[in-house]
Amino acid sequence: MSSSRSKTSFIDKPLSKGKGEISLALYALLFSEIVQYCQNRSHSIHELQTKLSDIGQDVGTRLLDLYFVRERNSKREIKLLNMLLFVKSTLWKVLFGKEADKLEHANDDERTYYIIEKDALVNKFISVPKDKGSLNCATFNAGIIEAVLTKSGFEYYRNPQATRETFAEDRWFKTGDIFYRDEHYNYYYVERIKLLLKYRNHQISPLEVESVIRQHPAVQDVAVTGIPDAECGELPVACVVVRTGHTVTAQEIKDLVKDNLTDTKQLRGGVIFLNEIPMTATTKIHRRKLKELVITMEKE
User: Fold this and answer.
1) What's this model's pTM, rounded to 2 decimal places?
2) How many CA atoms lie within 13 A of 276 on its CB side?
């Protein structure tokens, strides 16, 4: 005699979740187990985040073996753009259930690409306990992406010199970006290395000088670049757009920099007043055009 009681156990219910949702749930379970494992072996949040990043790198290396299409000679695809497209689409879907928002080619540097993601790369199933509120879960994700980009084995096609310049001896990829990391393992972008001005034995960040000049109420926009100098290397020049209805002199700009920055960061190349700053299609300062412009113009 059969029982009339309906079967309500979750085991008897159909699995209606999509593959993407299942992958995310498994990823969340994996992450929570890893956090617990590392937490039992760590004495501080910083140490915990470091362990998460290291394990993430191991996971990222394994993901390459599982998801990346290899050539017949068992070598990974070496084309940089194909590798970045793989990260943006396939790898991002595996990790985060969706493609990254955009893969963008920098207008002012043919060797630079940006993978853009508007949402935080922390899985939606993961919640951090209150007593671990300062824990940055993204260190695990960052480790995965880092492994993919540094251990993928790609290089510049038929350009060994560019490969040598871009990759360190241990095959780490040199992005050319300057970042600093705080005690909570958050990373902050500072400047592109190639944009630093070289004055004698010193390096000057244009962004630092620009941030000071922007404090002046008459300045609508500003960009700092350098002009070549045989003795000193480069001399900083400020290109200033004056706000409508305001006035400011070159000496006032120089005095503002003098009062706020060290002697090595002074505007020894002068000041130029422009109607607008040359920009790229992505609304960034077009540094190459700016440098070409200031070389031909009279400085104050």
Assistant:
1) 0.47
2) 6
